[in-house]
Description:
By secondary structure, this protein is mostly helical. The chain is built from 3 helices and 2 strands, in the order ααββα. The chain has one domain (28-101).
Amino acid sequence: MATGFQVSHAGLAEIADAFAKLYPNLNLHCGFALTAMQLEGVLKDVLLRGAMARILASPIHDAVAVEFDNQDRARNEMEGAKQTVMSEFYYKVRPGTHLTK
């Protein structure tokens, strides 16, 4: 079952072309842009894990807001999701490796 807004491949190409005209010095397909898109997966995973555990979590930019009693679990879920998502993108990262800036 498909949900949400769907755009065809041709439609995506039109959007990318329009964006390139507006911002000619910004490469959407560079490494950082792809990394930034991957980071969205971290929040999605945390929100889904929280929902499965009946914990209400609200996304706020690059974090989640939870009730005070759930802060440790949320922090652990964020770290676990970050490792999972980023290890898919950075193939050299092994499970259990902590990524730092």
